[in-house]
Amino acid sequence: SASAPASASASAAVATAAADAAAAARWGRSIVQPNRSYAALGLGQAMVDLAARVDDKFINELGLADVRGGRKVIDAAFKSDVLAKLDDYAGVEVSAGGSLSNTLVALSRLGEANDLLQFANGEHVDV
After folding, report:
1. Which of 10, 28, 45, 49 has the most CB within a 10 Å radius?
2. How buried is residue 14: exposed, middle or buried, by Cβ count under 10 Å (0-12/13-18/19+)?
3. Is the dihedral of CA 84, 85, 88, 91 positive or negative?
4. CB-based burial, 16-38: b 16+ in 10 Å, e otherwise
């Protein structure tokens, strides 16, 4: 998991995470070990989560008051708007994310052997 410095902007943090994922994909780094038995193998996109402390004004300006504590699927334009507005906030944290990654972490904490293959910057992937 990667972390952006407190002074880094949200868009810079995303760019760094995307560059890391693209480099791993470009060099074909494989994490799957051939002669190992797995309880689960996840295949999915390289995803990152951004976390930042924001005020109610920020939430309301984005029209997200009704989603507080929940989840919302957004499009690329909305994502760009949020990232631009997050640039004014310090302490944006970047970490590995996505439900697949989180599920595999939970399985490993339960003692199950698992691994994850992630894809970055492909025909159907936009990091």
Report:
1. 10
2. buried
3. negative
4. bbbebbeebbeeeeeeeeeeeee
